[in-house]
Specification:
The chain is of the alpha/beta class. It has 10 helices and 8 strands. An 8-stranded parallel β-barrel has the order 1-2-3-4-5-6-7-8, surrounded by 9 helices. α2 packs parallel to α3, α2 (about 25-40) packs across α10 (about 255-275) and α6 (about 155-165) runs parallel beside α7. The radius of gyration is 18 Å and the shape is globular. About 45% of the residues are buried. Bound molecules: 1,3-dihydroxyacetonephosphate. 1,3-dihydroxyacetonephosphate binds near residues 23, 178, 209 and 230.
Length: about 280
Amino acid sequence: MLVNLSSMLRDAHLKKHAIGSFNVYNFETIKGVLESADELKKPVIVAFGEKYLGNMDLNTVYAVVNSLAKNISTPVALHLDHCKSFEHIIQAIRAGFTSVMFDGSSFSFGENLRKTAQIVSIAHAVGVTVEAELGALSRGDYSNEDEGKQIYTDPDQAEEFVKKTEVDALAVSIGTVHGMYKGEPKIDIGVLKAISSKIDIPLVLHGGSGTPEATIKECIYNGICKINVNTEISMYTVNKIKEALKSDTNYHLSKVSLMEVKYVKEVVKKYMNMFYGA
Ligand code: 13P
Protein backbone atom coordinates (compact mmCIF):
# COMPACT_ATOMS: atom_id res chain seq x y z
CA MET A 1 0.00 0.00 0.00
CA LEU A 2 1.49 3.38 -1.01
CA VAL A 3 0.80 6.28 1.37
CA ASN A 4 2.19 9.78 1.88
CA LEU A 5 4.20 10.82 4.94
CA SER A 6 1.33 12.37 6.94
CA SER A 7 -0.12 9.53 8.99
CA MET A 8 3.16 7.62 9.12
CA LEU A 9 5.10 10.51 10.63
CA ARG A 10 2.25 11.66 12.87
CA ASP A 11 2.12 8.21 14.39
CA ALA A 12 5.90 8.07 14.80
CA HIS A 13 5.85 11.53 16.42
CA LEU A 14 3.24 10.41 18.97
CA LYS A 15 4.84 7.06 19.73
CA LYS A 16 8.41 8.42 19.84
CA HIS A 17 10.01 6.34 17.16
CA ALA A 18 11.31 7.19 13.70
CA ILE A 19 10.55 5.87 10.25
CA GLY A 20 13.58 4.85 8.21
CA SER A 21 13.97 6.55 4.85
CA PHE A 22 16.32 4.36 2.85
CA ASN A 23 17.90 5.37 -0.45
CA VAL A 24 17.44 3.10 -3.44
CA TYR A 25 19.10 3.14 -6.85
CA ASN A 26 17.96 -0.04 -8.63
CA PHE A 27 15.68 -3.08 -8.39
CA GLU A 28 17.85 -4.86 -5.81
CA THR A 29 17.94 -1.95 -3.36
CA ILE A 30 14.17 -1.43 -3.69
CA LYS A 31 13.58 -5.15 -3.07
CA GLY A 32 15.93 -5.13 -0.07
CA VAL A 33 14.18 -2.17 1.56
CA LEU A 34 10.66 -3.52 0.98
CA GLU A 35 11.46 -7.07 2.12
CA SER A 36 12.98 -5.64 5.32
CA ALA A 37 9.80 -3.66 6.04
CA ASP A 38 7.65 -6.70 5.36
CA GLU A 39 9.71 -9.04 7.53
CA LEU A 40 9.92 -6.57 10.45
CA LYS A 41 6.28 -5.46 9.93
CA LYS A 42 7.21 -1.78 10.02
CA PRO A 43 6.26 1.16 7.78
CA VAL A 44 9.03 2.37 5.52
CA ILE A 45 10.01 5.24 3.25
CA VAL A 46 11.60 4.30 -0.06
CA ALA A 47 13.73 7.30 -1.01
CA PHE A 48 14.92 7.94 -4.53
CA GLY A 49 17.25 10.93 -4.95
CA GLU A 50 17.27 13.24 -7.95
CA LYS A 51 20.97 12.42 -8.11
CA TYR A 52 20.18 8.85 -9.22
CA LEU A 53 18.08 9.73 -12.27
CA GLY A 54 20.89 8.27 -14.39
CA ASN A 55 20.20 4.88 -12.75
CA MET A 56 16.41 4.80 -13.08
CA ASP A 57 13.73 7.16 -14.34
CA LEU A 58 10.89 8.27 -12.07
CA ASN A 59 8.16 6.25 -13.85
CA THR A 60 10.19 3.05 -13.54
CA VAL A 61 10.91 3.67 -9.86
CA TYR A 62 7.19 4.14 -9.25
CA ALA A 63 6.27 1.03 -11.28
CA VAL A 64 8.72 -1.21 -9.40
CA VAL A 65 7.92 0.16 -5.92
CA ASN A 66 4.16 0.11 -6.53
CA SER A 67 4.27 -3.46 -7.82
CA LEU A 68 6.41 -4.81 -4.95
CA ALA A 69 4.54 -2.79 -2.29
CA LYS A 70 1.29 -4.52 -3.26
CA ASN A 71 2.64 -7.75 -1.81
CA ILE A 72 3.53 -6.36 1.60
CA SER A 73 1.28 -5.59 4.52
CA THR A 74 2.93 -2.47 5.96
CA PRO A 75 2.56 1.13 4.70
CA VAL A 76 5.15 2.31 2.17
CA ALA A 77 5.83 5.91 1.16
CA LEU A 78 7.62 6.64 -2.11
CA HIS A 79 9.63 9.79 -1.54
CA LEU A 80 11.72 11.92 -3.89
CA ASP A 81 14.86 12.72 -1.90
CA HIS A 82 17.02 15.89 -2.24
CA CYS A 83 15.47 17.49 -5.28
CA LYS A 84 16.53 20.96 -6.40
CA SER A 85 14.60 21.03 -9.67
CA PHE A 86 10.98 22.20 -9.86
CA GLU A 87 10.52 20.11 -13.06
CA HIS A 88 11.66 16.88 -11.39
CA ILE A 89 9.31 17.51 -8.45
CA ILE A 90 6.35 17.86 -10.82
CA GLN A 91 7.46 14.79 -12.80
CA ALA A 92 7.72 12.73 -9.58
CA ILE A 93 4.22 13.80 -8.52
CA ARG A 94 2.87 12.85 -11.97
CA ALA A 95 4.71 9.53 -11.83
CA GLY A 96 2.94 8.62 -8.58
CA PHE A 97 5.45 9.51 -5.85
CA THR A 98 3.54 10.13 -2.62
CA SER A 99 6.04 12.54 -1.13
CA VAL A 100 8.77 14.93 -2.32
CA MET A 101 11.67 16.78 -0.75
CA PHE A 102 12.44 20.20 -2.14
CA ASP A 103 16.03 20.93 -1.15
CA GLY A 104 16.27 24.71 -1.21
CA SER A 105 19.07 24.74 1.36
CA SER A 106 21.49 26.37 -1.10
CA PHE A 107 19.16 29.35 -1.60
CA SER A 108 18.79 32.36 0.69
CA PHE A 109 16.23 31.92 3.48
CA GLY A 110 13.66 34.05 1.60
CA GLU A 111 14.14 32.24 -1.71
CA ASN A 112 13.98 28.81 -0.04
CA LEU A 113 10.76 29.87 1.72
CA ARG A 114 9.15 31.23 -1.46
CA LYS A 115 10.01 28.21 -3.63
CA THR A 116 9.03 25.71 -0.91
CA ALA A 117 5.64 27.41 -0.38
CA GLN A 118 4.96 27.23 -4.12
CA ILE A 119 5.76 23.50 -4.20
CA VAL A 120 3.66 22.85 -1.08
CA SER A 121 0.60 24.47 -2.67
CA ILE A 122 0.93 22.28 -5.80
CA ALA A 123 1.76 19.03 -3.96
CA HIS A 124 -0.98 19.40 -1.35
CA ALA A 125 -3.59 19.89 -4.08
CA VAL A 126 -2.96 16.27 -5.10
CA GLY A 127 -2.33 14.75 -1.65
CA VAL A 128 1.47 14.63 -1.86
CA THR A 129 3.49 15.57 1.23
CA VAL A 130 6.51 17.89 1.14
CA GLU A 131 9.75 17.88 3.12
CA ALA A 132 12.01 20.94 3.07
CA GLU A 133 15.46 21.66 4.49
CA LEU A 134 16.82 24.55 6.52
CA GLY A 135 20.53 24.73 7.28
CA ALA A 136 23.02 22.42 5.56
CA LEU A 137 25.09 19.30 6.23
CA SER A 138 28.77 18.82 5.49
CA ARG A 139 30.07 15.71 3.76
CA GLY A 140 31.79 12.85 5.54
CA ASP A 141 33.55 9.80 4.10
CA TYR A 142 32.20 7.61 1.26
CA SER A 143 29.24 9.91 0.60
CA ASN A 144 27.84 10.40 -2.87
CA GLU A 145 26.56 13.88 -1.97
CA ASP A 146 28.23 17.12 -3.06
CA GLU A 147 30.73 18.83 -0.76
CA GLY A 148 28.81 21.03 1.69
CA LYS A 149 29.41 23.41 4.57
CA GLN A 150 27.77 22.62 7.94
CA ILE A 151 25.21 25.30 8.76
CA TYR A 152 23.14 24.55 11.86
CA THR A 153 19.41 25.25 11.57
CA ASP A 154 18.32 28.48 13.23
CA PRO A 155 15.29 27.69 15.48
CA ASP A 156 13.66 31.12 14.94
CA GLN A 157 13.98 30.81 11.17
CA ALA A 158 12.57 27.28 11.38
CA GLU A 159 9.49 28.58 13.20
CA GLU A 160 8.85 31.28 10.57
CA PHE A 161 9.58 28.89 7.68
CA VAL A 162 7.13 26.23 8.84
CA LYS A 163 4.39 28.75 9.55
CA LYS A 164 4.69 30.42 6.15
CA THR A 165 5.28 27.36 3.93
CA GLU A 166 2.94 24.85 5.64
CA VAL A 167 5.49 22.17 4.83
CA ASP A 168 4.79 18.66 6.22
CA ALA A 169 8.25 17.79 7.53
CA LEU A 170 11.44 19.76 8.07
CA ALA A 171 15.00 18.45 7.66
CA VAL A 172 17.22 20.10 10.24
CA SER A 173 20.98 20.40 10.51
CA ILE A 174 22.26 19.60 14.01
CA GLY A 175 25.70 18.13 13.30
CA THR A 176 25.09 14.89 11.39
CA VAL A 177 26.96 14.61 8.08
CA HIS A 178 26.15 13.01 4.74
CA GLY A 179 28.37 9.93 4.76
CA MET A 180 30.44 8.24 7.47
CA TYR A 181 31.85 10.47 10.24
CA LYS A 182 35.54 11.38 9.85
CA GLY A 183 35.92 11.59 13.65
CA GLU A 184 33.61 11.78 16.65
CA PRO A 185 30.12 13.00 15.64
CA LYS A 186 29.37 16.44 17.11
CA ILE A 187 25.58 16.44 17.38
CA ASP A 188 24.04 19.47 19.07
CA ILE A 189 20.92 18.18 20.82
CA GLY A 190 20.44 21.68 22.26
CA VAL A 191 19.71 23.04 18.76
CA LEU A 192 17.23 20.20 18.16
CA LYS A 193 15.48 20.90 21.48
CA ALA A 194 15.21 24.60 20.62
CA ILE A 195 13.71 23.79 17.20
CA SER A 196 11.28 21.26 18.72
CA SER A 197 10.10 23.78 21.29
CA LYS A 198 9.07 26.16 18.49
CA ILE A 199 7.52 23.91 15.87
CA ASP A 200 5.19 21.00 16.02
CA ILE A 201 5.69 19.21 12.69
CA PRO A 202 7.78 16.04 12.24
CA LEU A 203 11.51 16.73 12.03
CA VAL A 204 13.86 14.84 9.73
CA LEU A 205 17.45 13.79 10.38
CA HIS A 206 19.60 13.48 7.29
CA GLY A 207 22.98 11.77 7.47
CA GLY A 208 21.86 8.69 9.40
CA SER A 209 24.80 6.49 8.38
CA GLY A 210 27.20 5.75 11.22
CA THR A 211 25.29 7.84 13.78
CA PRO A 212 25.66 6.19 17.22
CA GLU A 213 22.56 4.48 18.61
CA ALA A 214 22.49 6.63 21.77
CA THR A 215 22.46 9.79 19.63
CA ILE A 216 19.70 8.39 17.41
CA LYS A 217 17.58 7.69 20.52
CA GLU A 218 18.14 11.19 21.90
CA CYS A 219 17.18 12.69 18.52
CA ILE A 220 13.98 10.63 18.36
CA TYR A 221 13.12 11.61 21.92
CA ASN A 222 13.47 15.27 20.90
CA GLY A 223 11.27 15.28 17.82
CA ILE A 224 13.02 13.44 14.97
CA CYS A 225 10.49 11.14 13.23
CA LYS A 226 12.20 10.35 9.92
CA ILE A 227 15.83 9.31 9.55
CA ASN A 228 17.61 9.08 6.18
CA VAL A 229 20.21 6.40 5.45
CA ASN A 230 22.13 6.17 2.21
CA THR A 231 25.93 5.81 2.42
CA GLU A 232 26.06 2.81 4.74
CA ILE A 233 23.69 0.80 2.52
CA SER A 234 26.04 1.29 -0.41
CA MET A 235 29.34 1.00 1.48
CA TYR A 236 28.42 -2.15 3.43
CA THR A 237 26.92 -3.92 0.42
CA VAL A 238 29.81 -3.08 -1.93
CA ASN A 239 32.38 -4.23 0.66
CA LYS A 240 30.55 -7.52 1.28
CA ILE A 241 30.26 -8.25 -2.44
CA LYS A 242 33.94 -7.36 -2.96
CA GLU A 243 34.90 -9.85 -0.23
CA ALA A 244 32.75 -12.60 -1.75
CA LEU A 245 34.18 -12.01 -5.22
CA LYS A 246 37.71 -12.30 -3.86
CA SER A 247 37.12 -15.84 -2.65
CA ASP A 248 35.22 -17.03 -5.72
CA THR A 249 35.87 -15.30 -9.03
CA ASN A 250 33.33 -17.43 -10.89
CA TYR A 251 30.18 -15.73 -9.57
CA HIS A 252 27.22 -15.42 -11.94
CA LEU A 253 25.68 -11.94 -12.06
CA SER A 254 22.33 -13.37 -10.96
CA LYS A 255 24.00 -14.49 -7.71
CA VAL A 256 25.60 -11.09 -7.21
CA SER A 257 22.12 -9.57 -7.56
CA LEU A 258 20.78 -11.85 -4.79
CA MET A 259 23.78 -10.98 -2.60
CA GLU A 260 23.03 -7.29 -3.09
CA VAL A 261 19.47 -7.73 -1.80
CA LYS A 262 20.72 -9.76 1.19
CA TYR A 263 23.32 -7.18 2.29
CA VAL A 264 21.02 -4.20 1.75
CA LYS A 265 18.56 -5.94 4.08
CA GLU A 266 21.19 -6.37 6.80
CA VAL A 267 21.79 -2.61 6.96
CA VAL A 268 18.14 -1.62 6.59
CA LYS A 269 16.96 -4.01 9.31
CA LYS A 270 19.70 -2.86 11.70
CA TYR A 271 18.53 0.75 11.36
CA MET A 272 14.80 -0.08 11.43
CA ASN A 273 15.24 -1.90 14.72
CA MET A 274 17.32 0.97 16.09
CA PHE A 275 14.71 3.57 15.07
CA TYR A 276 12.01 1.57 16.89
CA GLY A 277 14.15 1.00 19.98
CA ALA A 278 14.12 -2.81 19.45
P1 13P B 1 23.87 9.25 4.78
O1 13P B 1 24.44 9.03 3.41
O2 13P B 1 24.85 9.86 5.72
O3 13P B 1 23.23 8.04 5.33
O4 13P B 1 22.72 10.35 4.60
C1 13P B 1 21.62 10.02 3.80
C2 13P B 1 20.75 11.16 3.57
O5 13P B 1 20.65 12.07 4.35
C3 13P B 1 19.93 11.11 2.34
O6 13P B 1 19.08 12.18 2.20
